[in-house]
# Entry
Amino acid sequence: MQAEVRTQMLRMWRVGLLSGLALAAAPAHAFIAYVSNEKSNTVTVIDTESWTVTKTIKVGQRPRGIDFTRDGKFVMVAVGDDDTIQVIDAKTQAVVDSLPSGPDPELFAQDAAGKILYVANENDNTVTVIDLEKRARLGDIQVGVEPEGMTISPDGKTLINTSETTNMAHFIDTASRQIVANVLVDARPRFAEFKHDASEVWVSSEIGGTVSVIDPKKHEVIGKVTFEIPGLRKEAIQPVGIGMTKDDKTAFVALGPANRIAVVDVASRKVTKYLLVGQRVWHMAFTPDEKYLLTTNGVSNDVSVIDVAAQKVIKTIQVGELPWGITIAP
Amino acid sequence: MKVLAMAVVALALSGTAARAADPRYPDWPCTQAKVPEISLAAVWAGPTLDDVQNTWKDDAKVSALVAKLSARKTPLDEAEKSVKEFLAASATDKTAKAKLLFAGLFDTLNAQRSQVMAGLERVSRKQREAADKIREETIALHALQGATPRDEAKVEALGNELIWKTRIFEDRHKVVRFVCEVPTTIDQRLFALGRVIQQEME
# Structure
């Protein structure tokens, strides 16, 4: 309990300090981005002020899912072929520990407090639940075949897990760890993202080529975002990663081998613009001030920087081979 | 014994080579999916190139630059620098020149890619024939080895021949795996150069 109060205070203090700084010095905040490179077995560290690579960290085999701990002290990276999640100390930028996942962890999600981690293990159809403070395994949840995308509702009560093979989004009650609903979406659902007000959850379907908008209370698909790019075959449009601005007005959807990010008006669910980024774009992360959105481009081996307000690509940064996931220090 | 073991290896290899991932392309030997052509929209979000067509070939400077930039021996960062210099020097008709240059790169690199892919499929067919031959000769060798009286000279000659053929088969198999990366390398080059051209146009 005491620990919780302390982290809470720390967070408030940090938020206060950050906003104070923002007032004092409006121009460019330097943030640190970490990118997992699936093929080169490394994590690239990028400084968002100079937009340069400051370090390349050797990690385990096949790094994919990557995320900062909520306190910003550590970076967790799922190294699927080593059947574990490695922990990188953000200060020393070295691997310092590992977490007990199931076999072939692909990605994971943590609750709002940063205490519980849910890990999707691609090979044995389970989600492993890990206590982040103790770094210990709490149990497993049986889910659909080949669990893929994962996200937690803003209140922490519902975990959404998408299954590649059953084409469903499974709604899991985090308290009972039981599936409470299954929602059928289009083929090969890859990623799920809640609106910040929790009124909708968006699920991308890589083969289906759509994003399904689900009412998380009724567990029903209430709308769909579709994509069309003149000159491109439908099969080349493969939605994966989704990012939404904090005001829930604009969504960004990565379209894989279409090499583009779609800018979507959340209210009307219509695409307003397509931005050519890099080859086979999959995942993305906003800088905390939401000025920039960084995307990972697997085939061109780079990261694109999008100016969020201008909706323009302003920079490309070469990283390792097959960049997969990205996380930015809170 | 060694000969037999090698022949078995060869057959196992041919088995994997023959199992095409995509039924539309039975001769495609790579684990990478075969994408017959790069579509323009996947690499270009700039102004339409409909009015350019083949005219890039008539511009001596552009066609020389296209040849240089398309060569895999030109390092990519050097190629990107050349694009920037060329467009900076053509300030007045930058957009027109940029369109010409990209149209040339698109045609040339797409053709280069098609050639590599056709070559891969040709080698794949040859490998299948070679595997059949090795299989036949292995059976023949078995028969020779089991015959009484046994003709040692013939057994040795056929045995050596099999070792040789298996070695060629394996070497080719390794080369194919390496060459399978080339179409992607060409994709990457076209995309990277296209991106620089589009940035310079803005």
Observations:
- The mean pLDDT of chain A is 90.
- The first helix of chain A runs from residue 2 to 24.
